[in-house]
Specification:
five-stranded antiparallel beta sheet
């Protein structure tokens, strides 16, 4: 093997590694620990802000907001928990009686809210009481009753379904295209020598 051939193979390998590295971008992040999200309590309509809070996203529940002495709301990356304590009560009938958490797509706005699932021990709570946009999730409590220990946990965009950075797909396609081009050139070179 001549030094020119070795140099050519080394440059092809280096170029391939660079393009593959470009294709391996990170993952876009949902609201992460330390980010802030806005929580608006909406009553009697979805357009009427009754109360508003800003929460810091934490893993340990150290930042929570208490609404009306009825429930605490804690926001973690890709989930939030509403936990009731203190007394038995119910939410009055209205067009809307609940809250919206905004700012969930992260500081870069790339991790859109999707795949929303919930766990609860609320009687009569179902998926129709949840709605979401790319950046927010709304919960409508109207006509529901609660007691100490009642909870609602909402999760979205599970880590196994992380959202790739835009460069990942483009870089992968580019690296594959460069590889095919090099393979065709090599095949053409071998045919010319034969």
């Amino acid at each position: 093997m001549t030094s020119a051939t070795l140099l050519k193979k080394l440059s092809i390998a280096t170029a391939g590694a660079v393009f593959i590295g470009m294709g391996m971008g990170g993952t876009a992040k949902a609201a992460q620990v330390g980010d802030t999200v806005n929580v608006d309590y909406l009553f009697p309509t979805q357009n009427s802000i009754y109360d508003s809070r800003t929460l810091t996203v934490t893993n340990d529940g150290s930042s929570s907001a208490n609404f009306f002495g009825a429930f605490d709301l804690t926001v973690a990356p890709r989930s939030f928990l509403a936990h009731f304590q203190g007394f038995v009560g119910s939410f009055t009938p209205a067009d809307f009686n609940g809250f919206i958490v905004k700012g969930l797509s992260g500081s870069n706005g790339l991790d859109k809210v999707k795949n929303v699932v919930f766990k609860t021990n609320f009687v009569d709570f179902d998926a129709s009481r949840l709605s979401h946009t790319d950046d927010s999730i709304s919960v409508n409590w109207q006509n529901l009753s609660f007691q100490p220990g009642t909870y609602l946990k909402v999760d979205w965009n599970s880590p196994s379904q992380s959202v790739p950075e835009p460069l990942t797909l483009g870089g992968t396609v580019l690296a594959g295209g460069i590889g095919l081009l090099m393979k065709k050139r090599k095949a053409a070179s071998h045919q010319a020598k034969a």
